[in-house]
Amino acid sequence: MAQGITGEKYWEDRVAFETEGAGQEVVEYGDVLELNRFDGLPYSSRYYTLLKERMDLPVWKAKCDFMDKLANRQFIIVSGTARTGRSSQIPQWCAEFCLAVQYQNGMVVCTQVHRQHTVDLALRVADEMDVNIGHEVGYSIPLETCCSGDTVLRYCTDDMLLREMMSDPMLEHYGVIVIDQAHERTVSTDVLLGLLKDITLQRPELRVVLLTATHPGPKLLGHYKNVPLIQLEGVCSAEVVYTGTSHKDYFCSALRLVLEIHHSQEEGDIVVFLATTQEIDLARDILLREEANIPTHLGELLPISVHPGLGGTLPMPGEEEGRCRRVFLTSSPNEDLFWAVHMLNFVIDAGVQKRNVYNPRIRANSVAIQPISRIQAESRKQLVGPTGKTFCLYPEDTPLPSETRPHILESDITSTVLFLKRMDIGGLGRCDFIDRPDPEGLMQALEELDYLAALDDDGNLSEIGIIMSEFPLEPQMAKTLLASCEFDCVNEVVTIAAMLTAPSCFLVPSRELRLEASQCHLKFQHPEGDHFTLINIYKAFKQNQHEPFVSVEKWCQDYFLSLSALQTADAIRSELTDILRRIELPVSMPSFGSKGNTLNIKRALLAGFFMQVARDVDSSGNYFMLTHKHVAQIHPFSAYGTKTPKLGLPEWVLFHQYSFSEDNCIRTVSHISPEEFIQMAPQYFFFNLPPSESKDILQNILDNGAEHYKAKKLQKSPSLESIPEVTASCVIQ
């Protein structure tokens, strides 16, 4: 056990030794250089330079206290903003702790919420520890792993650690698990916190460290009984200015403040917290136009979009130079991304955020603009030093929620339930959630998994469910991929899955270029719908990628396509193909374009997305969704969205996404026939559909056969595709 090997005295001596060593370039004992304890090589002079900077961080005052508690307690909570150095220093100390016991209990893993933050931290910590990235210090993010057998400290996203538990349920590879940004309360973090409570009972040697931005709330403290709390002293508070702007005017007020700061010639970069991705892009376009009118002597104003979840490399310390003022335009939850920007001197906080709230009754997200929490507001104020300023675009007496609302209460948890079932947690009994999921959302998730044949009669995972859980996809898409193996169209469906999992490949240009962009996108349009259009785009991308005299980057620019999104889709496709081969499922040869292949792709899509079918009820583009009786329109970016009803919209469609509150549109739409739907939908799902005219039409087809329905529709649709007679049973069960 670690208790007999480490203790407060050891770590006090170690800190004193490092303090002494930091004052000189090289530490020698006679003719012997001090060796790095992690790789056995002499420390470089840069190590001591960085050590001086590290020891000035507020977190260093708590090192002895932390190491003593780590040696004697299983759970520790450390609270402090990103500027305290919590995310970079505490994992290093945990690595020292594991080294002191010769890694007999395992290595260190530190989870993060953001992919880019994960990589940035790993690079910074490898530099501070004077080791090579990918060796002693590594990272794992979706689609990218940089680790080796020598790795003793690994940064990873919280969802990556969850997937690792599928093969290592007790996380026996690790001696210390650091859960950073626990205050964000993401679904993956909450599941980890619930599972770790049970794992520590079975592994008393395991240490769990929770890092939060501010003082943890009573729920988190109460979840772990008598857990020690270390509160880090933050940097001196900057000047805070409350402007009293109303929520409707924050966007214009933020941009005016940016220009006023720039004209004042006060030094420092600016970070602006807005609410939505659309606001970020619009603000960047406006500032770029305004920059052309700024006098040269004021210097350049460079707006930089930093979208949540999409990364965008931020500069490391020491990289800021030149007479350029950068304006980082971002939104929640990106508060921790700016720890490395030393020139940051101004924060403009709109005080609101965009939240996607899942409604299980209609299986769709509603978008809500809500106030940020007090934790987020405080984190934003701490981003600048004592000489900086924070402008809060809301009245000082605005009531802000004390904590960030847990995402597990507002998200579709079908994937989470599938994972927990895979972990053999029937009924969620062993996952001690801080906030239990909404009962209605839980029931909807179990119902959906049952419809997808992922559960057996006892409510446990079926064979299909076990295979579905192997894929890093939404359950409906995983079922579609499995169905494609039976219908011999894996090559095409794996492309669709990759393109829909990656960010959108379509760039949204400025208003004056939108017509040109639309004309470019029309060149890839497929008559059967958007899913098939995505295959055309991917095939064209790969073809141009292999052309020796074609710049794929310029090709993407010319066609208003996102190179990074297409590269991500390519990587996802490779990962999915590798999984298919690993579990020995067949991968078909390409046959895109043939009539049989088109029909098989639709069947595979319907095997997973039969719950997302709609019918044009009045031949004018008003689509009635069978599962919840809402009516929506096809999104303008769809291949069908640009058509008028007179040009002929499909009567029956399958859609990938429904946005309820933003624009009430269905997105990524492809044409299907009612006979195909009846063939692929489980019989008990069909019978559970609410009463409607559309259901009556389907029932009529079942009772009288497809030919009777075709005869009635002949005048309206003379070119209906002939398909074989079908039954009510589901092909894939």
TrEMBL record:
Gene3D superfamilies in the cross-refs: 1.20.120.1080, P-loop containing nucleotide triphosphate hydrolases (3.40.50.300)
Limits of the Helicase ATP-binding domain: 67-233
Alphabetical list of SMART domains matching this protein: HA2
Catalysed conversion reaction: ATP + H2O = ADP + phosphate + H(+)
One MF term in the entry's GO annotations: hydrolase activity
Keywords, alphabetical: ATP-binding, Helicase, Hydrolase, mRNA processing, mRNA splicing, Nucleotide-binding, Spliceosome
Enzyme class: hydrolase
Lineage: superkingdom: Eukaryota
Enzyme Commission (EC) number: 3.6.4.13
InterPro entries with a match to the protein in the record: DEAD-box_helicase_OB_fold (IPR011709), HA2_WH (IPR048333), Helicase-assoc_dom (IPR007502), Helicase_ATP-bd (IPR014001), P-loop_NTPase (IPR027417)
Pfam families according to UniProt: HA2_C, OB_NTP_bind, WHD_HA2
GO terms for cellular component: spliceosomal complex
BP GO terms, sorted: mRNA splicing, via spliceosome
Protein name: RNA helicase
Annotated source species: Oncorhynchus mykiss (Rainbow trout)
